[in-house]
Design brief:
Elements: E1 2-5, E2 23-26, H1 28-38, H2 48-62, H3 70-75, H4 77-93, H5 100-105, H6 110-122, H7 130-141, E3 150-153, H8 162-170, H9 189-198, E4 217-221, H10 225-238, E5 243-246, H11 253-259, H12 275-285, H13 293-300, H14 309-321, H15 329-345, H16 349-359, E6 371-372, H17 373-390, H18 396-421, E7 426-427, H19 429-439, E8 457-459, E9 469-474, H20 490-498, H21 506-517, H22 519-523, E10 524-532, H23 541-548, E11 558-560, E12 584-586, E13 598-599, H24 601-609, H25 611-617, H26 633-649, H27 659-677, H28 687-710, E14 713-726, E15 729-741, E16 746-752, H29 756-763, H30 768-781, E17 786-791, E18 796-799, E19 809-810, H31 822-841, E20 844-846
Parallel strand pairs: 1-2, 1-3, 4-10, 4-11, 5-8, 5-9, 9-10, 13-15, 16-17, 18-19
Antiparallel strand pairs: 6-7, 12-20, 14-15, 15-16, 17-18
Helix pairs in contact: 2-4, 2-6, 2-18, 4-7, 7-8, 10-11, 12-13, 12-18, 13-14, 14-15, 17-18, 24-25, 26-27, 30-31
Length: 884
């Protein structure tokens, strides 16, 4: 067997195709697999989480105030165990031997002594790491020689960890020269560049270069990865040649190449964020108190959610509007709608309801005290069955994805069983999150991105460019991550060295890494293409090195790919300006906008003050995309306060309730309402906001009770449906509160969260919504009711006089409105509506996007009013300004 091995070659495809049988190029893990297979040492390797749990148990047995890890272990057992296990594995890889434990036990450092004690405790109980597996290979090779005829190393033997050196020395490897590539012959810029980077520092051979466009070196840059990838796709298609594609950060490259009918390069990019691997974290997030509304909404809208689709869609919509679960009205309506949908979808309602209980309404636990392992095991078993049922999917790519999700669940199940065997009965949120991260550590590759025939030789690490190629393309020459320093002091590193653990010097590691960066540059034989990251991004040190090799005024020419978009060979397209905003739209002749049979205040408001919004929403029936988001902020406050007042007035004795009884009722009712419809306020970090809302609503309801008492109110009806007619058809709406006094007089109270704008409306006789509701009630009773606003955030009742509500804040009308009231406002509304109707009948639609007044408002109509653009879903359809 012929092997070539490099430190960075696992999972890479940078080697040239060689017509040899039984020959292989691989990395350390591939070589270890070959050796263990031939020596009979193969075993089922445990997961990373299994080993962490085993090491945690040893740390736990030895834990005490004197141990250096005691305080960290008390906060995060699994995280501490994972960190210390990584230390231990690194030491075994770099020379741990029989003499190491006693040497560390006598070391001056308490950390090293404690690690030696843990090593003695874990002996024979910890699954083997890479270093220990290599030690077993060395022992086996003393009695059996592996069938490897030739072994070539891509790096000097001294670059390998000591445990590997002991194995490789027995195989008598052929060591690579420090620089395996010779510069290409000739006088091309590529040849000069390769000679310059290989020249020893300070030697006369390293003369400064001058840039010349001979095609052997090209430097490209684009403002977006899409444009750079598209340019490369055209290039590879037009000039096929033997190419090594170095892409440490792939981005959109593979997708764009595939879209250009080129072969996929096979950059699978393992990720923990594949859809199948997102389900388990979302499920586990629903185990804890308080309820995570955002996580629950993500869970219900996930394509692999185990809740039946018909149920989860309705529940997600309900949560977006009323963020909470339980037995509130919104929740019960959603369940009733789901039950009604079951016959049409062929679903069994009892089974659907049980699924909802299992996945949406589970018992939630304190994140510190933890969830019982038995309960968690049942949840994982149900999720495993869900994935197993989907493995029968006809699409192989989806099968692979579901199998990844199943493997993630099974790995976590195995870790939890290990915890149970160690005597644990519960697990908290933080250690469970650590276990989950370890179970998902390697992520899952994209099954749709397998390399296809005709693909380039693709690598993700520069050192994997081990064979020469006609062309080398280095994609997105971005700065690499920093090499982490050792976490030990110099004295501790010296003690480790005396114990036989030889850790490479950090400067030596950095020098090796810098040397490996030159591999792609030296591997190119005809052309080197460097694709820089977008302007402003940090570039790779290799690019800084190359720039330093050129004389001033003769620096490398960076081709801005945006310039290629203006290539004279491209067809000229006529400029198409964006549609400009116009104040008036004119419909073609014969296009009619019919009136609606029934209007509401919200529809009439848009018709009167911004007709284009009304036309697009109602006659045109254009609906915005349904992107679900949890209701929050002022909108949530308003909904909660409205519903709290509704619940209060629905009590039989609400108007005569004593203050002590009100205090008791409010405390329970507020908590129940927030749980059912505002659970987002119970999430971590929002306690102060929730307490402030509680204070405001309690004060507001107390003031409202006082207003009713002083007005001698005998009846309060919430959400009273009001219906009537006007010249344009029917009007319907719901009055927030309809109150009646002992003398039969009535008032309509419109509850709002704010206050200032409604003071202005009353002062200017512009309270159109109240006036419309008052007219609808007048049509039923024959007399106008009193009209008032109630500010829920301020606890103020606003009215134009104190006749009905003696304790109201009286808002005086402006001087020019002293002789007008709701009846006159209703007449102004009719005039303005008729004018808008005439405009629509003539095909004219006004577009109002600022405070500019109507060019010709009717004298006896409504004053123009600018609507809040935040509630206009059609702004982008109105056109663009010149400066946009």
């Amino acid at each position: 067997m012929q092997l070539r091995v490099g430190l960075h070659l696992d999972g890479q495809r940078g080697d040239a195709v060689v017509p040899e049988l039984d020959a292989q190029t691989t990395g350390p893990l591939g070589l270890l697999n070959v050796l263990e297979t031939q020596l009979g040492l193969l075993r089922q390797e445990p997961s990373a989480s299994d080993r962490v749990l085993q090491y945690r148990e040893a740390l736990k047995r030895l834990d005490g105030p004197a141990r250096f890890y005691h305080r960290s272990f008390a906060v995060d057992e699994l995280g501490t165990a994972a960190t210390l296990l990584a230390w231990r594995d690194l030491w075994h890889l770099h020379g741990w031997g029989d003499a190491t434990p006693p040497a560390l036990a006598a070391a001056p450092s308490r950390r090293l002594r404690d690690m030696a004690a843990v090593e003695a405790e874990v002996a024979g109980q910890l699954a083997l790491g890479i270093g220990e597996r290599l030690a077993q290979v060395v022992l086996a090779m003393q009695t059996m020689a592996p069938r490897i005829g030739r072994l070539a190393l891509c790096e000097p033997l001294a670059d390998w960890p000591l445990a590997w050196q002991r194995v490789l020395a027995r195989l008598r490897p052929i060591e690579s020269r420090q620089n395996a590539f010779e510069p290409v012959p000739g006088a091309s810029l590529l040849a000069d560049l390769q000679r310059a980077v290989l020249a020893p520092a300070g030697s006369g051979a390293g003369r400064r270069l001058r840039w010349r466009d001979d095609g052997s070196v090209r430097v490209l840059q684009a403002e977006t990865g899409w444009l750079a990838a598209r340019h490369l796709a055209q290039w590879l298609h037009a000039e096929p040649m033997d190419t090594v594609l170095c892409a440490p950060s792939v981005g959109v490259l593979d997708e764009v190449l595939a879209a250009a009918t080129l072969a996929r390069q096979g950059f699978k990019e393992p990720s923990a964020f594949r859809p199948a691997l997102q389900v388990l974290p979302l499920v586990l997030g629903q185990l804890w108190r308080p309820l995570d509304l955002y996580g629950l909404l993500q869970f219900l809208t996930h394509p692999i959610c185990p809740v039946p689709r018909a149920a989860r869609v309705r529940l997600a919509r309900m949560l977006a509007q009323s963020p909470g679960i339980g037995h509130g009205p919104a929740w019960e309506r959603a369940l009733a709608d789901i039950e009604a949908d079951c016959p049409a979808s062929g679903a069994d309602w009892p089974q659907v309801r049980e699924r909802i209980r299992l996945w949406v309404e589970p018992e939630r636990h304190d994140p510190v005290q933890g969830v019982p392992l038995a309960v968690l095991g049942e949840r994982l078993q149900a999720l495993a069955q869900h994935f197993q049922g989907r493995l029968r999917d006809a699409d192989p790519a989806r099968q692979l994805a579901f199998n990844s999700g199943l493997a993630q669940v099974l790995t976590l199940q195995r870790a939890l069983r290990a915890l149970a065997l160690q005597g644990d009965t519960r697990i908290g949120a933080q250690p469970l999150q650590t276990l989950l991260a370890q179970a998902t550590a390697q992520g899952s590759p994209n099954p749709l991105l397998a390399a296809q025939a005709g693909a380039c030789r693709a690598i993700t690490h520069p050192a994997a460019a081990v064979d020469a190629a006609q062309q080398v393309i280095w994609w997105q020459l971005q700065a690499p991550g920093d090499t982490a320093p050792y976490p030990w002091s110099r004295a501790e590193i010296a003690a480790l060295s005396q114990a036989g653990i030889v850790l490479p010097d950090m400067e030596l590691l950095l020098a090796r890494e810098a040397r490996s960066w030159l591999q792609p540059l030296l591997a190119a034989r005809e052309r080197l293409v460097l694709v820089l990251p977008p302007p402003g991004a940090e570039v790779h040190p290799v690019w800084l090195l190359l720039e330093s090799l050129f004389e001033g005024g003769h620096a490398p020419r960076v081709e801005a790919l945006e310039d290629s978009l203006r290539d004279e060979r491209l067809p000229v397209l006529a400029h198409q300006p964006l549609p400009q905003r116009r104040r008036w739209w004119q419909l073609p002749a014969g296009i009619l906008v019919p009136p609606r049979e029934t209007e509401s205040f919200s529809s009439l408001e848009s018709l009167l003050f911004n007709p284009f919004q009304w036309v697009l929403k109602y006659p045109a029936a254009l609906n915005p995309s349904s992107v679900l988001d949890v209701s929050d902020g002022v909108l949530l406050y308003g909904n909660l306060s409205h519903h709290l007042v509704e619940r209060y007035v629905q009590q039989p004795m609400a108007l005569t309730q004593a203050d002590a009884a009100f205090e008791t009722w409010f405390s329970a009712a507020f908590d129940e309402l927030v749980t059912q419809e505002g659970a987002v306020l119970q999430m971590p970090g929002r306690q102060e906001e929730l307490a402030a809302l509680r204070r405001k609503l309690k004060f507001a309801l107390t003031r409202l009770r006082s207003q009713w008492r002083s007005a001698q109110v005998v009846s309060v009806v919430a959400e009273e449906k009001l219906q009537g007619h006007f010249v344009g058809g029917e009007i319907t709406g719901f009055g927030d509160l309809l109150v009646t006094r002992q003398d039969g007089a009535q008032a309509i109270i419109d509850m709002k969260w704010g206050a200032k704008s409604y003071v202005d409306k009353l002062a200017g006789n512009r309270h159109l919504q109240l006036a419309i509701y008052g007219e609808l009630l007048r049509q039923q009773t024959g007399r106008w009711p009193q009209l008032a606003y109630f500010s829920l955030s301020k606890g103020e009742l606003l009215a134009t006089d104190p006749h009905f509500f003696p304790e109201a804040r009286v808002v005086r009308r402006q001087a020019d409105m002293q002789d007008e009231g709701p009846a006159q406002l209703w007449q102004r509304f009719l005039v303005s509506w008729q004018r808008r109707r005439q405009q629509l009948d003539g095909g004219q639609i006004e577009v109002v996007l600022d405070d500019a007044a109507d060019a010709d408002p009717p004298e006896d109509g409504l004053a123009p009013e600018a609507l809040n653009p935040a509630y206009n879903d059609y702004l982008t359809l109105a056109g663009w300004e010149q400066d946009q």
